[in-house]
Each structure stands twice: as structure tokens, then as C-alpha cells.
Amino acid sequence: MAECSRRRFLQLGAAAATGLSVSACAGSSLGGAVLSGDGPIKVGLIWPQSGVYKALGDDQQAGWRLYTDGTAGRLGGREVQAILVDEGETPETAKAAAEKLIKRDQAVAAVGVISSASLLAIQPMFQAAKTPLISTNASPSQVQAEQWCWRTSFCNNHAGVALGGYIAEHIDGPVALVAADYAAGRDYLDGMRSTFEPEGGKVAGEPIMVPFPNKGSWTPYLQQIEQRRPKAVFAFFAGADAVGFVKEYTKFGLAERFPLYAPGFLTEGGVLEAQAEAALGIRTSLHYSAGLENERNSTFVTEYVERYGREPTCYAVAAYDAAALLDQVIGHAAEDVSAQRIETEIGRVGVIDSPRGPWSFAANRSPKQRWYLREVRPVQGKITNVVIEELATLGDL
Amino acid sequence: MIGWLDAQLVSIVDGVAYGLLIFTLAAGLSLIFGTMDVLNLAHGTCYLAGGYLAFRLSDGGWLGFVLAIVAGLLAGAVGGVLLAAVTRPVWRRGHLDQALLTLGIALVGSELFLVASRGDPLAITEPTVLGGTVSLAGHPYPGYRLLFIVVAAVLAGSVFLMMERSGAGALVRAVVADRAMVQAIGIRTGRVQTAVFATGVALATLGGVLGAPIIGPAPGVDERVLVLCLVVVVVGGRGSIGGVLLGALVIGQVQSLGVALVPRFAPFLIFGSMALMLAIRPHGLVRTAAPT
User: pTM, whole model, 2 decimals?
Assistant: First the structure.
């Protein structure tokens, strides 16, 4: 009996672990009716409605809706039917969502995806279907200047490129590097070193790579940082890892000793709320901040806060801009709105007037845009990212 | 040696904190599996519920903290009785049915949490008095975690004494060993089982409240702690509280000291140690006299 139930226990345990991780994929897909002929223009939206990236997906939906509600659901003067599908958590769920948009809905364009893994999985599908895909976040460095693929977000390594020179200039001594151990983490570290080392910056030992996502303790990694005796730390983490790292970094007394620099995702949106005081003083680079001072942004922030009760993030802006982009493009295409025509017209689009400031596409089909240095500070009792200065304008890699 | 100990002190102490935290969960899981032969896959969800209560009630003061603990214990006890009632129809229907039922409850729980948290990790406020950083032989260390180690050690000790030395513990162990015989001498084993379910779940929610500043409530945490619990029970041996405690402390060190010593193998250490244990001591660290 003991022997038998022990084996059962192992089997059930294994089943439980698999079951829980699979469950996250089984999100819902909202179906849209199949309309034909002169009906509304069908645009697919692929954002996570389940799993660990749900919060980012929600922000993107919020940004998209804010724009399209402002135009009464019309883009470029034409009625648009937005078909929302669930990106889920894995490349498989994203593929299923893309398959539905291409085959069943025959959308003329698709907007979305948070995860780089999703983009790598679905980009070839849209290329084969000759349908434009506008990425609102995911930006793996492997996908550059591919036909039928555009980005309203950023290039993965730019946050590091923008910050590297600044750190080299302001920190006198070695800087420890720590990052989540996956493609994006390495992209950011490479980007940072590409401007940090030529400016005379010294790296303290080998980069510390943390398993992604980190399901264990943070202490061993914090100790490795200490043992390198750096003058400052450059870190890339996002989502739940960003919260775990920042809180432990402060609790273990590292924040007082080594100033922390990072790509902006470390303190963007919901994670900053969870980090609270622990994040104070962290300096990050990003192409957006809710506190950015321009007229377009102040209108945008006011409307966004009024409607959703929270400050907009760079994620919301990227989706908002995707809607603005399609608004222009469909307007130019006028009567002949086809996938091919949208692809051509995106290539001809000039400047997008965005809350982040005006931007246009660089040759690699990503925004050429300004990057800002931000610091986490309390402003009127609220902890927020305050823009300190402009770092650089970056376009092609 | 002294130098090495000094360099690794923080990792070792932190490993103890993690170990004791996992123990509060794994003890309940093991108790429920032992007495009722029900594997409660919603155990991680109970931890998450405790963490959520800490988020709602703990406001940086002692009152909120104590309130969260009391609410956690109450919610756990009530939740345990409910879980016992819900799973009662499948107690005799084999493990697969139970697994499906409790897994279903776990899935509903994690979706509810996702809605409540908007998908972000929740900000936990520990009592301000303990929120600071203290010096541990010259190394900065979170003050709350030291207190947690003391409280969790007392908790682990009480659970151990209750199970191994008290009349109630003897009764529970008797039900594990031979349910029919205990029934035959006129004891309602169903009540004992429900009480065990309530205690086990209350331990998990209490762990969730106390552990919130260490493994905070966030989407996916339910799965993470459930898997850790299962590993602990496998490593420690299913039969006894002592085994679970030992297993939890070992896994705590593997996760902390192990990762500090061989960071390159960090992702494999937990399951590697479980596989190793299955290969060399398939009954776990502590082997109990096998109940028939």
C-alpha cells in the first residue's frame, strides 16, 4: 500500500504540474462573425487575455480602445471590425490565434503580441499569408526589416544602447550586469555593452544570468552582485521577475550601496505599483513616460486616466499608435483596402503624432524615436517614473 | 571554513526561511494525503488565498498583520471544511477523479486571482517595524525574514509535537494506519478526516499570509509552491511530519545555498535533487514503518 500510493503520488504530482501549466494556454478566443464584400474592414488583435502577460495585454487593449472609441470605431473613415483573439502564454497559443485570423476571419491586417516567442512563431505565418502584422510589443532581434512585419514598439536592444554611454559617463568604476536568461535579456546586455565599453566603461566580471522566469530564491544572485564589488548595477527583468528582483535588491540593502540602472520595463506599469517604495531611485531608459511633457501626451494621459483609473504605460501607447497608424494607412488606401495595399501604404506613412512624441519608421521597420532617462520618484504622494533627460534618438540597429 | 561560512551565511539563513515556508504547506499536503488518501492539488491555491488576504488586510501596522493572520487561519479552516465536503463524493473513487476535481478548483482559483489582481504581482506591506534591513553578522538581511524563521520554527515544532506526541496526533496516525480498525472502536473517522483537511488547509493559508513578503502573491505562484511541496514530500518521505520537515529544509538549502555554489545549474537543482533522491533512496530521507 505504501509503495503503491507513493507511485500514485508521483504520477499525480507530475500530472498536476503539467495540468496547471497547460491550463494557462486554454484561453478563450472571441469569435467575430464572418462578413463579406463591402462590410467593415477586418483587423485582428492578438493580445494575451490569460497567463502571465495578461496585464500587458490589458494595457494594449486599453490603448487600442481609447483610440478607436475616439473615432467611433472607424479608421481612415471606414468602419472597422476588430477581432480579438487570445495570444495566451506560449508560441502554440499564439499560432492558434493567428491561424484563426488568417484562415477563418481573413483579416486584412493583424495587430499585437507581447511575447517575443509568439512573434517568432507567427511572423512566418503572416509572411506566407501576405498579411501585414504590426507588432505592438514583441521585438526579437532576429526579426529585422522582414516584409509584412512592422513594429510600433521599439528594438529590443535599444533600451540598453541608449543607457550604456550615460552609465559609462556617470559611474566611476566597474558595473555588474544581471539579466533574465533568455533572448531578450542577452539582447539588452549586448545593447548596453555596445555603447558602455567604447566609452571606457568597465564590466564587473561575467554577466549574472538568472533563470527565466525565476521560480527560486533571489539571494544567491544578490550575493554574486555583492561579491563583484561594483559601483553600480545594470539589470534587465520584466513582469513578476522585475517585482521580485527590485524588492529583494532593496531588502538586502543593495539599493543603498549600488545604484540600479535598467531598461524601463523594470519599473513600467503594474510592476511599479507592486514594487512601491522599493523602486525609489532606480534609473531606467525608455521611449515613453506618462510624465512626458508634450501636448499630445497630456491629452492622452488625461483621457486614459479618466477612463481606466490608472496611468498609461509604454504598452498602451504602442497599441494606441498602431491604431493611429492604421487610421492614416486606411485613409490613404481609401476604397481599395487590401492586405497588399496596407503593406504598401505603411511603407509610405510619414510621421505618426504619438503621445511619446512624433516618430517615423526606420529602415528596419521599427520606430525611429527618442529614448529618455527616467528616475522613480514620489510625485504628490504617488510613485512614478520622472523623465530626467533625453538620452538619444535611435533608429536602425 | 570561517571565511566560507561568512560568505555563504546569508544564503544558508535564507535557505532555512524558504525551507520552513515550504514546510507549512507541505505538512498540510502530506497530512491530507496520508489520512484521507486525497491529493489536494488546490493546495497552492490555498497559499495564494492567504497571500491575497495579506495584501488586503496587512497595512504596515501590527493590527493589520494580526488581522491578516487571524483571517488567514479562519479562511483556511472554513476552506478546508468546504474542500473536504466537496471532495467527499470522490474519496473512494480513485486518485484520478480527485486530481481532476482539485485541479479544477485550482484552475478556478487561479483565474479568480488573475481577475482580482489584474495579472500583476500584488504589493505586500509587512509591519513597518520589521520592514527594515538588519545586520546579520555584518551582512544586510531583511528583518521580517528573521522573525519569520522564529515563528515558522515554532509552528513546525508545534505541528511535529501535535502529530507525534499528542493524543490527537495518535488518533490521526491511527486513521492513517488502519481506518477500519479505528472505526471499529467507535470513532467517527470522517470527522477526524475533516479536521485534518481543515488543519492542513489552514496551515497553507497561514503560510500564505506569513510568507507573502517572501514568496508574494502573483499569478503562477500557486503552481510554483504546489510543485515545491510535491518535491518536498517526495524528497522527505511521505509518511511522517519529521520527514517532510527534513525534506523542506533540504530543498530550501538546495534552492539557496545550492544555487549560490553552482549558479550554472540553477534551473536543474530542484528536480535534479528529487531525481537523485528517487534513485538512491526511493522512500525519501525518512522511512517510516509502512502502514499496511
Answer: 0.87
Q: Which of A210, A223, A249 to mutate to test the interface with B (most CBs of B within 10 A)?
A: A223
Per-residue pLDDT tens over the stretch B14-68 = 999 999 999 999 999 998 988 878 889 999 999 999 999 999 998 888 899 999 9
Q: What is the 3-state secondary structure (H, E, C) of chain B?
A: CHHHHHHHHHHHHHHHHHHHHHHHHHHHHHHHHHHHCCCCCCHHHHHHHHHHHHHHHCCCCHHHHHHHHHHHHHHHHHHHHHHHHHHHHHCCCCHHHHHHHHHHHHHHHHHHHHHHHCCCCCCCCCCHHHHCEEEECCEEEEHHHHHHHHHHHHHHHHHHHHHHHCHHHHHHHHHHHCHHHHHHCCCCHHHHHHHHHHHHHHHHHHHHHHHCCCCCCCCCHHHHHHHHHHHHHHHHCCCCHHHHHHHHHHHHHHHHHHHHHCHHHHHHHHHHHHHHHHHHCCCCCCCCCCCC
Reported as type and span, the H/E element at residue A341 is helix A339-348
Distance CA A217, CA A215 (A): 7
Helix (H) or strand (E) holding A232: strand A232-236
Asked whether the beta carbons of A353 and A327 are under 8 A apart, the reply is no
In this prediction the ipTM stands at 0.87
In chain A, residues with a C-beta closer than 8 Å to the C-beta of B173 are none
Which residues of chain A are within 8 Å of residue B107 when distances are taken between CB atoms?
Answer: 20, 23
B60-102 pLDDT tens trace: 888 999 999 999 999 999 999 999 999 988 888 888 999 999 9
Do B133 and A270 lie within an 8 Å CB cutoff? no
CA distance B134 to A190: 36
Question: Measured between CB atoms, which of A5, A8, A273 is closest to B123?
Answer: A273
Chain B residues close to A269, C-beta within 8 Å: 120
